[in-house]
Amino acid sequence: MNCIAVVIRNSSRIGCRFQHHWVKPKGFDTGVKVYNCTTKQKEPLIIRNKNYLTWYTCGPTVYDSSHIGHASCYVKLDIIQRILKDYFKYNVVTVMNITDIDDKIIRRANQENVSYADVAKKYEEEFWSELCDLGVTEPNVVLRVTENMESIVSFIEKLVDENKAYKASDNSVYFSVDTCKAYGKLQNIGKNDKQKSSVKRSVLDFALWKHSEDEPHWNSPWGKGRPGWHIECSALASKAIGSAIDIHAGGIDLRFPHHENEEAQSCGFHNTSQWVNYWIHTGYLHKKHSEKMSKSLRNTVLIQDMLQETTADAFRMACILSKYRSNMEFSKDMLKTAENVYGVFKNFITTCDDFKSQYLKATINHEHLIAALNKCAEDIHSALCDDFDTPLVMKHLNELISTTNSMLHTTSTSGHEAMDFSSVSAVQNFVMTILSTFGVNFRSSSSSSQDFGKIVDILNEFRQSVRITGIEKRDKEILSLCDHVRDSLKRHGIIIRDHGKQSSWSN
Hints:
Blueprint (H helix, E strand, L loop, with lengths): L14 E3 L10 E9 L4 E7 L4 E6 L10 H20 L3 E8 L4 H10 L3 H18 L7 E4 L4 H13 L3 E3 L5 E3 L14 E3 L13 E6 L13 E3 L1 H12 L4 E7 L3 H16 L5 E7 L2 E3 L15 H7 L2 H9 L7 E3 L1 H25 L9 H20 L4 H19 L12 H17 L9 H27 L2 H16 L3 E5 L2 E5 L1
Parallel strand pairs: 4-5, 4-12, 5-6, 12-13, 14-15
Antiparallel strand pairs: 1-9, 2-3, 7-8, 8-10, 10-11, 16-17
GO cellular component, one term: cytoplasm
GO biological process, one term: cysteinyl-tRNA aminoacylation
Function: Mitochondrial cysteine-specific aminoacyl-tRNA synthetase that catalyzes the ATP-dependent ligation of cysteine to tRNA(Cys).
């Protein structure tokens, strides 16, 4: 289960670089390959338990509204979790922390003249609400720092007792990086022994407990203070999952130093050389002609503002069209492309419905269509097994619907169409199932959506009756009014399609 770390040091002792070899965990081979940032290549995803896998995600520091950089990370991770759960049928146990005490939270509280708890509660509630709007599934377990302070202190205490951490002259506690021979396994770093610190033994050492006499603070064996950022995730993840985690996820910006430090101190705590078997990192989200999106750079777009410009489904589609490890460029063009792709699939599903309702006459080649479906299913399986390649999946789906559409829009010259509802339904079901696996649903089951649908049904039936009257009486004025209603509804996202004397609608 543990990795083997091979340490190569420069004999000059001026500097050294660590090299690490990752060894496959013992367990059940899922048949999936994922990118490994230690080996810098795709490795077989092997989980410790055949019946379930454990997944920890770094949660937010709740001091401000979340931006779409956060949204892209959590949506992409949600897509991967759904693939593992809904496509590969694994029982994925998910855990997330909430950092509800931090210097940024305290500063925000002082600015607004409220308590730090009020700030944390406000932005945590906003965070969950926006994740719900984005269709992101909530984790099975959520652990807040302030509710688990005893566990964090206990975690640090063990590291100090085993001389892997120390109390410095500033009364803070630091992890001793020199005690972790595999430090730098996630991101190659150079270590210079000549670099000194006035407080720490090494400039690479990082804070586990930050001394503070100011409020808020907690008591500890080393005095009053608050935990460091990195130790929170290690202590909470270990509490929820234990000494070995299958998958640990977050944005690429967390790989170093946050995830590197998590791995180092957790390996020290559990006396193991590998705490996390697989690290999954999502790429940055950039604004066009800009650096990565972050609050510190003041170039953020809030989730709530983005959802005023586009839909959650369109944003999710943009994430699907990008490999999870790749950077994304946020722009109006990106959103428009995603909206168009979403519209193509929605129109395809509507066309299939029209065909099954016999609004649309078509000639279907059953054998050819089923062969295309089978090939698409095989290609999609290969793509998902290859580091969750969702853009390639979308390419294969597009090819399948193109083949199907060509049949749906072809009628027999003899007037005897081969209808074959079953093969068209099979393709429609497959497309909807794959997209649903990614969290894209074209048919809402909510009561408000059902009420809206019933209202539009009534309007469509009324227009259809009026239109039939206009056709029978050859009344151009009535038909013009019906066209006006159709065009007006289209401007509001409702598409009316006329099929002879019958009409259908979609949105």
